[in-house]
Amino acid sequence: MPTYEYRCANGHEFEQFQRMSDPPITKCPQCGAEAERVLSGGGGLIFKGSGFYITDYRSDRYKKAAASDSGAAPKTESAKPDSSSTSTSEPKPAVPTSKPSSSTD
Fold this sequence. Notes:
The protein is an alpha+beta fold. The protein contains one helix and three strands, in the order βββα. The chain has one helix at 60-70, and strands at 3-8, 13-17, 35-38. The chain has a three-stranded antiparallel beta sheet, with no helix packed on it. The longest helix has 11 residues, at 60-70. The termini are far apart.
């Protein structure tokens, strides 16, 4: 149910939480003067969840520009071993994670 904003002739402002089908309030609850519904900007619409993306509602002009730019994007280099590094043919031995137990004989 929406919250409606009202203002009376004497300048009092108030909000009323009511159904859309309910008739508008005509009297101010503070002074009894005639009240009228005020148009408000309302709340922003926010989509949450995995099914909505910010780019879903982009303009066609933006989508076309993005599609034409995607072909000109610089390619990233793949992760190749550096030729200046030491021997890569043999794997390094694993470092032990536990200390050897010291025994006192």
